[in-house]
Amino acid sequence: TLSPMREDDLPTNSSAQPEVELKMGGIELLPIVQPLWEALYDHHHENGDAGLAVRPREESWPLRFAHYEQIFKDHTAFAIVAHTAGVPSGYALAYEDDPIDEDDERSIVTIESLVLLPETRGQCIGTLLLAAVETEASERWEAAESALEVMTGNESADAFYEHAGFVERGETWLRLAPAGGPAVGERKTDEDRLGELLDEHLDDEEALFALALEDGPDDTWLTSDVLVVGQPEYDVEADAAALEAALAPFAAAGATSALIALDSETDAGWPEALESLGFRKVLRLLTRPIAAN
After folding, report:
1. Which of 135, 179, 182, 185 lies at a C-alpha separation of 20 to 30 Å from 191?
2. Cis (ω within 30 of 0) for the bond into 88?
3. What is the pTM of this model?
4. Which among 271, 192, 257 has a CA at the least distance from the CA of 229?
5. Which residues, in sequence order, are bridge partners of residue 229?
């Protein structure tokens, strides 16, 4: 599953201040928020899904909930559900994460999800959830920064986070399958071969890309069951052919979908190179410092 917090669909604040109750806990809080996630799925679909094919709506929530369960197994995490007039109106899920900057030893809080019902947007519930997440993360982990991702084309989320002081730190590009190569689902996933390929790559001291494997499929886009995730090394000039050569063996073993992360340190020519290979920019990484108490 993609790791992304692309679920924040919030506009700027309004003067309306509904009576909202926030409940904090773990995974046990989340089964009731399925309608909110599905409303987000619909919103993303209305905005074009970043130009890529998506899986059927009824398949999305089971995959998303399984992803949440895995987060609680792998990380120190918490969930907050907002209730308006006794009805779930929004939720957030966040976890402690390593700092983005290697020279910073302080942990950050990754906001995996921040979701509202469409009819409650503009009522400051998103602002309340965001403040509650950062307060809890600061108290629990002394987190110094919040990080999240927003799907490309989600203008309401862009406006909300810009108003809240978040700045862009990076972007993620996705390709479901290589042009002229195996389509998603065409090749059976060969986990043994994928493991061998990854070991070979990690042993290659001259590798141009940092690559890893991530379990899928994604809960929104129609990806393979295993994805290749990677980032060009900082001293590598954009080279579409080299990236395609690195990804091809993984695609042949069933990992047809690939995610490539870029930031300010990677070569400026990479967006054009990725476009030439059929990648689409799907996520923007946003961060802001957490104000000291």
Report:
1. 179
2. no
3. 0.91
4. 257
5. 212, 259
**222's tokens:** 């129609």
Residue 174 token pair: 């996705």
Q: State in Å, rounded, how far the first CA of the chain is from the last one.
A: 35
CA separation for the pair 279, 277 (Å, rounded): 6
- Give the Cα separation of 102 and 80 in Å (integer): 29
**CB neighbour list of residue 259: distance below 8 Å, 6 or more residues apart:** 2, 172, 173, 174, 214, 227, 228, 229, 230
Structural tokens at position 67: 């992803």
Report the amino acid identity of residue 260: I
The token duo for 70 is 């895995």
Q: Which residue bears the tokens 């995974």?
A: 27
Q: What one-character DSSP code corresponds to residue 123?
A: S
CB neighbourhood size of 45 (10 A): 12
Instruction: Provide the 8-state DSSP code for 42.
Output: H
Chain centroid to Cα 5, Å, comes to 4
